[in-house]
Amino acid sequence: MGLNDTPSGERLHIGFFGQRNAGKSSLVNAVTGQELAVVSDRKGTTTDPVYKAMELLPLGPVMIIDTPGYDDSGDLGELRVKKTREILDRTDLAVLVVDAGRGLVSEDRELVDLFQGKKITYLIVFNKEDLMTQAPQADAFYVSALTGRGVHELKERMAALALKAGRDRQERSLVRDLLAPAALAVLVIPIDSAAPRGRIILPQQQVLRDILDGDRMAVCVKESQLQDLLDRLPADPDMVITDSQVFEQVAAIVPDRVPLTSFSILMARYKGFLETAVAGCRQIDRLRDGDRILISEGCTHHRQCDDIGTVKLPRWLRQYTGKDLIIETSSGREFPRDLTSYALVIHCGACMLNPRELKTREGLAVKEGVPFTNYGIAIAHMKGILERSIREVLPFSEA
Q1: Given the DSSP bridges, would you call strands 141-142 and 60-66 parallel, antiparallel or unpaired?
Q2: How far is residue 381's CA from residue 336's CA, in Å, rounded to a whole number?
Q3: What is the dihedral of CA 154, 155, 160, 164, to 10 degrees?
Q4: What pLDDT is stored for residue 74 in this prediction?
Q5: Strands, E, within 159-226: which ranges?
Q6: pLDDT for 2-61, tens place per residue?
Q7: Which residues contact 312 (CB under 8 A, 6 or more apart)?
Q8: What stretches of the chain adopt beta strand conformation (E)?
Q9: How do residues 79-127 score in pLDDT, each as one tens digit?
């Protein structure tokens, strides 16, 4: 997987914020070395967030976000400001771009308060240094997007700050820390009508890569071939990792002595919400007629006839509970800010969301007392194999 193929959820997100005409888009273009954003002297040229995946040395793959001006006005302007605030939910490093000729204004200070309130690492950059008439402040960072002065130093400063902000993420692994050196894991990957043609889905790719990065071994197999594979192996595999959709079938084949979990459960562990998800799935047993359930996916994709989020999970929930449930769905970056009307939120593994955005969604649910779980854990619970599936990744005392 090349740098351009690095999933957005694995990239540190760097957002450029500031007022209209502060030169945010010009500075983004200078930092990326591309004409990514439209630039004009007219205020409010950037009307929607613009995303650019790139490599920022020495950090590596990042996602650069150019946001609309925070001082935008009118009905549309208020919507743009609202969208800018939402960008903060996925921002690991915020770059506040200030017009050096004007200095900090009230909207800039409001943004700083938001950065601090959300505990976002941030950097204040004074742009348009070439147009300054007064002497620069000794402790301020000045650049000129027009001449390029200070841009290289800005990239180095951004990389250093982003590296610090993302250090915890770099130290995490999906599964290799659960496997001894040279261990063998069997990955059960269904290939059905809902599988993307010509490839396997992202969590499966990421688990396979993590195993190989850790010098462990992996064998990939369809569920229909699992028994034959186990019969051929000279000894038990060290772990079986399955797609949640065939959890029940795989659990019936794999001996109880062999650790068994799912890609979705490993993603919940990797993203840092496994404990919340395990506790949240217990709500399924308490659902009543008329309860509203939100099933949320972090990505958008073409729905197949037997899609897990919109078809299989709703069917399994109704079969398991026997209740008349109201099930709603959301996908991509659309996620309700008000969850008070829901009895339960079931989220995907969030492979396309960075940890900050997923934590924001989890936090909204926890704050409002709404149970929050994920696909794999909900399915394991309904199939009666939850305790087994988290045995190796979460101690029973926490389950």
Answers
A1: unpaired
A2: 25
A3: 110
A4: 65
A5: 184-188, 217-221
A6: 445 677 778 889 999 999 889 998 999 998 887 654 444 555 444 578 888 888 776 778
A7: 245, 306
A8: 12-18, 50-56, 60-66, 93-99, 121-127, 141-142, 184-188, 217-221, 239-242, 260-262, 292-296, 326-330, 344-347, 372-374
A9: 777 888 889 999 999 999 999 988 889 989 999 999 999 999 999 999 9
Give the count of beta carbons closer than 10 Å to the beta carbon of residue 166.
Answer: 22
Q: Whole-angstrom Cα distance, residue 24 to residue 287? A: 48
Q: Would you say 3 and 11 are in contact if contact means Cβ atoms under 8 Å apart?
A: no
Beta strands 12-18 and 60-66 are: parallel
How much is the pTM?
0.81
Sheet holding 372-374, edge to edge: 326-330, 292-296, 344-347, 372-374
Given a contact cutoff of 8 angstroms between Cβ atoms, the answer to whether 95 and 16 are in contact is yes
Render 275-327 in DSSP notation, one character per residue.
HHHHHHHGGGGG--TT-EEEEE-SS--PPPTT-IIIIIHHHHHHHHH----EE
pLDDT band at 260 (very low <50, low <70, confident <90, very high): very high
Nearest to 307 by CA among 188, 191, 190, 195: 195
Q: Are 215 and 181 in contact (CB under 8 A)?
A: yes
3-state secondary structure of 92: coil
Peptide bond before residue 234 is cis, with ω within 30 degrees of 0: no
Q: Is the dihedral of CA 281, 206, 303, 192 positive or negative?
A: negative
Calculate the CA 46 to chain-centre distance.
25
Domains delineated in the chain = 3-169 (3.40.50.300), 176-266 (3.40.50.11420), 275-382 (3.40.50.11410)
* C-alpha closest to that of 391 among 198, 204, 256: 256
Q: What values do phi and psi take at 280, rounded to 5?
A: -65, -30
List, as own/partner pairs, every contact residues 385-389 make where C-beta atoms lie below 8 angstroms and the sequence separation is at least 24, other chains included: 385/247, 385/248, 385/251, 385/260, 386/278, 386/281, 388/251, 388/256, 388/260, 389/247, 389/251, 389/260, 389/261, 389/262, 389/265
Task: Give me Rg for the CA atoms of the chain.
Answer: 24
Given a contact cutoff of 8 angstroms between Cβ atoms, the answer to whether 180 and 238 are in contact is: yes
Look at the chain and count its residues.
Answer: 399
Structure tokens at 65: 């976000």
8 A C-beta contact, residue 377 and residue 399: no
Instruction: List C-alpha distances in Å: 101 to 23, 69, 129, 225, 290.
Output: 12, 17, 8, 68, 58
